Structures are given as C-alpha cells and as structure tokens.
Amino acid sequence: MRPNILFIVIDSFSANKCFGANKTSITPNIDFLISRGTYFSQTISAASSTVLSFGSIFTGLYPFDSVTRENNYFKINPKNITYIKNLIDFGYTAYATIPKIFTFVGLEKIFERKIETYDSSKNLYNGVGEQILDSLNSKNLNEPWFYYLHLMDLHGTETSFVTDPPLEFSDKKFGTNRYERMISAMDVWIGKILEKIDLEKTLIIFTADHGADSASWTPEMEKFAQDNIENRKVEPGLMANIATKVPKSLIPFRKTLSDKYREKRDQTIEKKMQPERKKVDDLNLGSYEKRIIENAVGSIPRVYEEMCHVPLIISGFKLPNKIIEELVSSIDIFPTIAEIVDMPKKNTKIHGRSLLPIINGKKIEERPVYIESDIDSSSKINVIGIRTSKYKYFRNGDSTGSNQHLYDLQNDILEENNIAEKNPNLVKEMEIILHKIKDGSFSESETKQIDEEKQKKIQEELKKLGYI
After folding, report:
1. What stretches of 233-363 show up as alpha helix (H) in DSSP?
2. Under a CB-based contact definition with an 8 Å cutoff, are residues 371 and 308 in contact?
3. What is the DSSP letter of 61?
4. Rounded distance, CA 180 to CA 172, Å?
C-alpha cells in the first residue's frame, strides 16, 4: 500500500527552536511527530532563502542547478524533472496550499494547478488553518495523495507586527520570546491538521526552508526590530513608474531603466539604514548578538547556522523512533521519500541521496553540504560555502579569495571566531570540495522577461513580506 504524504514546511523555522535544550515553546504535536518517527538533528538547508531552498528540495539538486532567473526573480528551473512530477507519474495526486507569492516561481505548473493560495501575510490562526482543514476532508483528496503545505507563521515580520494575535503569543509561559510563542500558537494548528489525517497510512515530512535570526532575539532586540524594520521600505519613485510604462518593444531599454531604479532604490535604502546600523553598533553587543540583530535593519546574504540549520522529522508509516545526529541536507528529503514509497528512480542527475539506510541503522559516509545565501537574484553579493560536521566555510560567490570565513563548529558553535586566515590549508581543502560539488553544473545564462502584470504582482507580494 502506498502511503499518503503530508509535507509541511514552516518558513524560517530554526532547528534549535524545534528540538533541544534551547527550546522554550510548548509543542505537544510537534513532539508527537518526533515520538513516532525519526528526527535528524543535523539537517542543513541548501540555501538560506526560500525559493532556492525549496527548488533544491523538490529536485534533489543544489541551487546552482535547481533554479533559474526571470528578470530579477528566481524560479524553479523548468528544465528539471521534480520529484512532484515523479510522484504524479507514480499514481499520486499532488496538492498544495502555499502563499500567493510562490505562484510566480513555477509551483502552479508543478502541481498541475491543484493548488490553493493564501495572502502571504496570513497565518494559521487567522484563516490559513481553516483553509487547510477544509482541504484535508477525505472527500476532497484522491488517494494516494501528496499534500504540500508552506506556512508563514514564523516568517520575517510576522513575529514583530502581529494583528489580533492568538492567546499563546501574549503569554510568556509559551516561550521566552515572540518567535517561540508563535511556535506554541502554530503547534495548536499542527494538532488540528493531524486530527484530520489517518496517521497509520500517512508519511509525514516536517521541515523548514531555512532558519531565522529572530529565533534567538531577546525582548530588547525584538523592540529594536519593531522600531526599525520600517526603514527597509521605499515607495516606488519616478524612475520605477517610467520603467514599467516603456513599451515591450523597448524591453532592453526598459530593463536598463529598471536596473537604474533598483540601484537608486538600494542607495536610498542604504542611506536610510546607516543611522540604524550605527544604533546596532551602539548596542554594545557581542559578535553573535550583533550578527543576529543586523537583519532587522536590512537583509544580508548569510549562511550562518541560525539561517541554515533546520528541523527535519520523517514520521509515521512504521518508521522507527530515533534521533539521528549524522550530517544530512534538505536535498536528501525527496530521495528518501522515493525509496520509502518504492518509487522507481527517474531523475538521472541529483545531488541528494536517500536517508533510509541511516534510518535503518546503516552507516554511510558523510557528505559535505553545499550552502548558498542569495536573498534575491539582484543581490550583489551572493555567499556560497561548505558545511561539514566539523567546519563551516563560506565566501563571496564571485571571488575565491573574497570575504573568506572558516569556523570550527565543534568548539565555536556560535561562529564567532573566524579562523580562515590562520588555516590556509584547511581553506584550500574546503575550496577543493566546493569546486568538486559545482563541477558539471549547468546554469541558465539567458535572462528571460516577465510580463508587466506578473512583475507588478510580484513586487506587491515582496513588499508585503518586507523585502522591498
């Protein structure tokens, strides 16, 4: 019997707030999933931004192969065969409930339009939860089904600007900061969703696209973020209005205007943020605390643990209850699903591998994990790197010797002491690994154009989420 598959992604869920000593939220339902399945305590996301991350999850490929660009936005590379398509060919009916913003990245085609959307600023407790429960009524889903849920309760400003918050959000017994109290509120709805499912014949995947700096903010940091996050927003100016009105026949010229607008916008934002960056410097914080509050001023491409270490629970369908500490990657999730449901291998090229042997107690060789940070395709500084069980290495993506960072994760868990300069041989080893992983990759060199209406909608959604 093929199991149904419920795949839950909590946007911006940091691993140390899902399981372990640093967690203070109350999560009986997430704990229940762990108790009846396998938890991978060292799961590293392939990217610290959403589209790159789930592009890699759906394809089993790292971001440099899994996504492409249209104008200044990422989307899942249409040349790739996703595991969703493989499941559909295998007899599954695929469904999804996702934020509206992600309809622009190719998911509507992947799910063959069996897709529901919600306003990207909505949460489980103010409408999204009820929408999901309605979809989970057995009469609406054809078995075997695959159902993808992407939830935004922890994303970005959600824990800073909450309107009509749930009870759990206001009571400190549910967590030491807003982020953890939101997890407690979210867990209530996870329980309601699980009640709708036949757990005996459902495989449940519970993970995140990436982590969040805000997971470890103190109340003082939360107040600072609340006071300063509005400085990211800049209203479209004359240049932007001109750029969008240029006829399609003059697309190259329109692109030039658009690029000039973005450059001017970035300069304006940077100018507004300079006093706020000075405020961060004046807070007299340690290097870790300063790092995790800087993103409250402006998004910075990064691959530190708070952004890349994510939870992974594979639960139900007779899986053993265990905690696995081996290093794994988010690109391993779908190869694991494929082996569990005994789906024929169709993807001729993947970077991930099945974790079922580890689940069944076999030892397999550790693979270094490639990580990438590009927060959007117009970012001037993309960060790429390697994560092993012992070390984290990263640098600017466009230059081998630029902005090199190396951390001893066993002795410096907060990544505060950069040892790159003192360990040139180890840096060289990491560079060799990096080049080996990227060897043979293909890239989408052609810059495609998005029609004006779609680009306007994307801009509106990104503005809601605080990116522009």
Report:
1. 238-245, 251-282, 287-294, 305-308, 333-340, 356-359
2. yes
3. S
4. 9
Two tokens, residue 277: 């960056």
- C-alpha 68/C-alpha 73 separation (Å) is 8
Q: Residue 371: which H helix or E strand, with range?
A: strand 369-372
Which tens digits make up the pLDDT trace of 179-203? Answer: 999 999 999 999 999 999 999 999 9
Whether the CA torsion 167, 170, 176, 182 is positive or negative: it is positive
Q: What is the pLDDT of residues 332-348, one digit of tens each?
A: 999 999 999 999 887 66
Q: Strand, helix or coil at 410?
A: coil
C-alpha–C-alpha distance, residues 204 and 154, integer Å:
20
Q: In whole angstroms, how far apart are CA 47 and each of 53, 140, 156, 302, 309? A: 5, 34, 16, 9, 10
Amino acid sitting at position 163: T
- Residue 379 token pair: 């970012």
209 and 63 Cβ atoms separated by less than 8 Å: no
**Phi, psi (degrees; rounded to nearest 5) at 142:** -85, 125
pLDDT tens-place string over residues 47-89 = 998 889 999 999 999 999 988 877 667 888 888 889 999 999 9
- Residue 211, pLDDT above cutoff 90: yes
The CA distances from residue 147 to 150, 190, 206, 390, in Å, are 10, 14, 12, 36
d(CA 221, CA 179): 12
Q: Helix, strand, coil % (nearest 5) of the chain?
A: 45, 15, 40
